[in-house]
Design brief:
This protein has helices at residues 13-22, 31-44, 55-65, 82-90, 135-145, 199-206, 212-216, 236-247, 249-266, 268-272, 299-311, 327-332, 342-348, 360-375, 379-383; strands at 48-52, 73-77, 94-98, 120-126, 148-152, 160-161, 164-165, 172-176, 189-193, 285-286, 293-295, 333-335, 349-351. It has 385 residues and is α/β, with parallel strands linked by helices. The chain has two domains: 13-247, Aspartate Aminotransferase, domain 2 (3-Layer(aba) Sandwich); 249-383, Aspartate Aminotransferase, domain 1, CATH 3.90.1150.10. The strands form three sheets. Strands 1-9-8-5-4-2-3-12 form an eight-stranded mixed β-sheet, sandwiched between helices. A three-stranded antiparallel β-sheet has the order 7-6-10, with no helix packed on it. Helix 2 (31-44) runs parallel beside helix 8. The mean pLDDT is 96. The protein binds pyridoxal-5'-phosphate (PLP). Pyridoxal-5'-phosphate binds next to helix 3 and helix 4. The site of pyridoxal-5'-phosphate has 14 residues, from helix 3 and helix 4.
Length: 385
């Protein structure tokens, strides 16, 4: 069976993990964490980056830094992972879901403004599949209405919008280094702080409400409890593992882009024949090959395709069930305007195997199986098998 995902593994990770262990520094904020933070800051021209225990906790931190009060509203797409929403709910906000664009599956920037009320505090821009939201428009709306912007760039490490790294455009950016992501530390993530004014508060929040970071920099004589906080810093063992992959970031990125481009060329004919839709990367956006998906005609065809691929030893999977249709979505939020594309487009989407090290031979097997499915003249015979 060709798996859907294999966590990235370069080969240097365990050497660095051993180094951390032998140096007797395995709790957070040691040399490997610092190296990762600095690498991310330098590479993405980010004001400040702090590793976190997950993409979810990076989002939690970002939302807490936005100073939400009960009853405040947060605008987000419904087509996203639960973590985007739970960060807002934990901070006490009400969710306002906005429809997506059918081409990128990202929040439809043209529908954001009508969802703004006097209670709106934050817009969350989720860069689906590592392809950027229309950030110029989103930032313009935010500035005109005095709103904060959090980029959920969990899938978008190494992607850019008009030359800027995703995660560095809004007030805060959040990355994930989960094993399903392009770069991994098992469980982990990072918060990007794009406004210096939040640096100290973020450090305190991440370090159990203490000013320990200031103490380590020699800026205070002893550290103490100064505000509310939590523990969001990952172990050095995880950071050491990630460091091996950040060192090889271009190698991983290029490998994924090669696979993505091979899929994309192989399926052009299906698209031209009107059988499927393919991912769209708008002008000015550079993506990171995080995901390759096809869009079938509708749900029934997608179910048949996934089943057919399984019969050919290929594991393909669908993605989010829109949050506004989930039990917690009803409880904590509302959909603003019409659900024109969120449900219908999510039901058509199927993700193909995509990971660092996917061999051309295995990829050909995936491509051939998809082409075989669509070569059946009478699709109904496939659907009823
Ligand atoms: C869009 C999005 N947001 C947030 C997350 C949460 O990241 P993590 O699994 O690192 O907590 C993920 C990943 O699963 C994601 O895809």
């Amino acid at each position: 069976m060709i798996p859907f995902n294999i966590p990235p593994y370069i080969g240097t990770e365990l050497k660095y993990v051993t180094e951390a262990a032998e140096n007797h520094k395995i709790c957070g904020d040691g040399p490997f964490t610092k190296k990762c933070n600095k690498w991310l800051e330098d590479r993405f021209k980010a004001q400040k980056v702090l590793l976190t225990t997950s993409g979810t906790t990076a989002l939690d931190m970002a939302m807490l830094l936005c100073d939400i009060h009960p009853g405040d509203e947060v605008i987000l797409p419904s087509y996203t992972f639960s973590s985007t929403a739970t960060s807002a709910v934990l901070a006490g906000a009400k969710l306002v879901f906005v429809d997506i664009r059918p081409d990128t599956m990202n929040i439809d920037e043209k529908k954001i403004e009508q969802a703004i009320t006097p209670k709106t505090k934050v817009i969350m821009a989720v860069h689906y599949a590592g392809v950027a939201c229309e950030m110029d428009t989103i930032m313009d709306i935010a500035h005109r209405h005095g709103l904060m912007v959090i980029e959920d760039a969990a899938q978008a490490v190494m992607s850019t919008y008009k030359g800027k790294a995703l995660g560095t455009i809004g007030d805060f950016g959040c990355y994930s280094f989960h094993e399903t992501k392009n770069y991994s530390m098992g469980e982990g993530g990072a918060i990007v702080i794009n406004n210096e004014a939040y640096n100290e508060k973020a450090e305190i929040l991440r370090e159990k409400g203490t000013n320990r970071s200031k103490f380590f920099r020699g800026q205070v004589d002893k550290y103490t409890w100064v505000d509310f906080g939590d523990s969001y810093l990952p172990s050095e063992l995880n950071a050491a593992y990630l460091w091996g992959q950040l060192e090889a970031a271009d190698q991983i990125n290029n490998d994924r882009l090669d696979s993505w481009n091979r899929y994309n060329s192989a399926f052009q004919k299906l698209k031209e024949a009107g059988k499927v839709d393919l991912p769209v990367v708008p002008d000015g956006c550079v993506h990171n090959g995080h995901m390759y998906y096809l869009k079938c005609k509708e749900l029934q065809e997608r179910t048949a395709l996934i089943k057919f691929l399984k019969s050919r030893d290929v594991l393909a999977v669908f993605h989010y069930v829109p949050l506004h249709s989930a039990p917690a979505g009803y409880k904590f939020g509302r959909f603003d305007g019409e659900d024109r594309y969120t449900t219908s487009e999510s039901e058509r989407l199927v993700r193909l195997p995509m990971y660092y090290g996917l061999t051309e031979q295995d990829q050909k097997k995936v491509i051939d199986a998809v082409l075989e499915f669509y070569s059946k003249n009478d699709l109904r015979s496939v659907l009823h098998k």
